[in-house]
Specification:
Layout lengths: L10 E5 L5 H8 L19 E3 L3 E11 L2 E10 L8 E9 L9 H15 L4 E4 L6 H9 L16
Parallel strand pairs: 5-6
Antiparallel strand pairs: 1-3, 2-3, 3-4, 4-5
Length: about 160
């Protein structure tokens, strides 16, 4: 039986440009991350992030029939960094497109780009432990658990 939610329309994946800022910001509003409300200046995506850890961020957009439906970000290490390890963050698919197989080709494209174009030796990412679909995707793509973190807060 074929899942009707899986898209048969080709998914186009491309690097974002500053012209995509409004669409990127809209996708970010659908993030399931508990930290999604942290304010940030989206224009900084296209410049330096933290030169001590990552040179800048690339944003990959997934489109179906010209509609931006998903995104993933790849933070790149400085070229002089001893270890060329990238960092994936903010992988988001618009709710109207979830369950259609958008994340896997998006992440495969990002991984291929990181390896072939940027010659990264590894990619790290953080995922919330209750985000089971994302964990399954990442493990299917070859990511492996490195360690667990505990997050504490003291309300004042």
């Amino acid at each position: 039986m074929i899942d009707e939610r899986i898209s048969t329309t080709p998914i186009a994946i491309r690097l974002a440009t500053p012209a995509d800022i409004e669409q990127i910001d809209h996708l970010d509003s659908f993030s399931a991350s508990p930290t999604r409300s942290i304010h940030r200046e989206i224009e900084k995506y296209f410049g330096s992030v933290d030169p001590s850890t990552h040179e800048y961020t690339l944003i990959f957009l997934a489109e179906i029939a010209g509609n931006v439906c998903g995104k993933a970000e790849l933070m790149l290490p400085p070229t002089e960094a001893p270890q060329q390890i990238g960092y994936v963050k903010r992988v988001i698919v618009h709710p109207d497109y979830r369950g259609r197989g958008i994340s896997k080709p998006l992440m495969r494209y990002l991984i291929g780009y990181a390896h072939e174009e940027r010659h990264l030796t590894a990619i790290d990412l953080l995922v919330w432990e209750n985000n089971v679909p994302a964990i399954q995707l990442y493990e299917e793509l070859g990511f492996s658990l490195q360690h667990r973190e505990l997050y504490y807060r003291l309300h004042l």
